[in-house]
Amino acid sequence: MMRLWLLFTPVVFFAGWIPIVSAAPEKVGFLVVAPDRGFLGNQEIRSLVDEFKKSYPAALGLVGRDYTGVEGEYAAYLTRAAQELKQAGATEIVAIPLFLSEADSLLKRVKPLVPAYTGGLPLRWAPAMGQDYLTGQIILDRVEALSERPESERLILVGTGATDDASDKALKADLDKLLAYVKRYKTFRDAEVVIYYDREAKEAEQKNKEIKAHLLSQMAKQGRTLLVPAFIGPKFDHAMSLTSWLDSEFKQTQVIYKPNELLPHPNALFWLKKTANRETPAAAGEIGVVIMPHGSTQPWNDAVETTIKPLMAKYPIEMAYGMGDPQIIQEAVSRLEQRGIRRVVFVRMYALDHQMKPLTDYILGLSDHPPVAGHGGGHDHHAAAPHQVRTAALFSTFGGYEQNPDIAQVLHKRIAELSKDPASETVLLLAHGEATDEGNDKWLAVMNQNIDRLRQDPHCAKLKTVKALTVREDWPKQREKAVAEVRAAIEEAGKHGRVLVIANRLYGSGPYKKMLHGLTYEINEKGLVDPVLTRWLEDGLTRMTAELATSKNQQSAYVHP
Asked: Parallel, antiparallel, or unpaired: how do β-strands 498-503 and 425-431 relate?
C-alpha cells in the first residue's frame, strides 16, 4: 500500500501581494495555478475552474511536485493555459494560486518561472487562498459538521508540509490564524494546530512519529477529540488520498473525524470570483445596492420605501431591513449576485454614519474584527461573532442621513406645519439617542448643527427656543434620566407658551407619546421621510458607484484573530 504521507506537499496558509507590473490592463485573463493532485483531486479542480470560466476569462495550469522548470513536463500545461488566455483576447494575466500560501514549496519553485510561459503578456499574482475569510469559513464548516458540545471537546487542525523547524513554526502560525477564526464562533475545551512534515524533509520520519504520538496522547484524554484536515492534498482516488491516510492512522482511536479537506467547497468558487472582481473594473450593470433601514411595521416600511422607489429604475436595489441581521443581508446580497451583480453599495439608512458600521463592516468582510457591544455596533460581545456573508461581491458603504445638511429643510417643514406664533413657541427636536455618552453627544451635535441651519430661516429665527434632546430609548438606566429631562423641558416651556415636539427620526414618533403622557404639547410625528432623503441616497449612490466602476476594490480579505 502506498505510504500516502510521502505525497505531502508543503502547504501554508497566508501570502502577501507582489505586484509585478502597474500598467492598467485592457483585458485581464486569469491563470489558475493549481497543484497536480491526481485523478480525483484534479477532477475537483477542473470542475471548480470550469465553473469559474463561465463568468471570467480563465484557464487552468497544473503543476506537480516533480516540476523541474521551464523545460519540464508541466511546462506544457502552463504554456497551453497562457495561450488559451491570449487567444481569448487577454492583454494581461493575473495568476491566481490555488494554494493556501505563497510559502508552499511547489508554488515557490513555480512562481518565478511562470512569466516564461505567458508569451510576453504582463503578469501579476493575486493573493493565495488562505488570506481570505472565506477560507476560514470552510474550516468552520468542517468543524461544525463534527462538533456537538464544543465546551467539552478538543479541536485539532492538521496541516502538512513542514520541512524544518522554521517552516514548522511558520505553518503553525498561519494555521493558528484559521483556528482563531473558528474560535470566534465556538469555544472549545482545548484547541491546537499540528503540522506534519514533508517526506523530503531531513527529519520527516522521526518528526511525523512524534506528531502521531502527540495526537494519540490527546485522543486518550477525557472528552471528544475532533480531527479536522486543513490542507489541499493529493487525491488519486477515494482510498489513495491524504485524508484517507489520515483516517487509517487513527482508525482504532475514539477520534471524531471525516475525510473532508478544504476542497471541494462552494467558498472556493466564491474566492476565485472575488479575486477576479478585485482585479477588474466593474462593467455596466454589475453594480447593485443593498439598503438597510431599521425597519418596523408595514406603514413604517412603506413610508421609507417611498424615498427609495424613485431610484429603483436606475439601480438594482434590494432591501435588508433590520439591525444588521446577517441572514437578511446574505439573502439580499445573494439575490443581487443572481442578477449578475459583482459590486455592491451597502447603505446604512441610519441617522449617523457610525451607527451599525462596526457590525455591518464585519458581516460584509470589510473588517476583520467582530463588533463590540452597543447599539451602534449592534452586537453582544458575550455572543459568538455574527456570520459573514458568503459572496464573491465587493462592497463599499455609506450611511448617516441626518448628517446631510439638507435635513434642516425637512425639519423646517415639520416646524412650519405646526407653528402659528413663533415668538411664543418652544421647539424640541426629539431623537432616539445612543447608549454611550460619547455617541449620544455626537447625535446632539449633529442636531444642533441642523438647528443652526434652521435659525437662518426668517420664520425659525423668530422661535423662542429650538432645542435638541434625546430619550436614549433602548437603555433603561439612561432612558429614565433622559425622559425626565425631556418632560421637565416641556413643563417649563409650557409655562411661557406653546411647546412643539418634532419627531427627529426617520418615520413616526415611536414611544414618545407614551413617554410624554400627561404633558401639554403638540407633536409632528411625520419624521424625516421626504424627497430630501431620496436626494441623499442618490448623491451617495452616484459617488460610490463611480468609485466602484473606475477603481479596483482593495477591501480587506484577511483572516485575522
From this structure: parallel
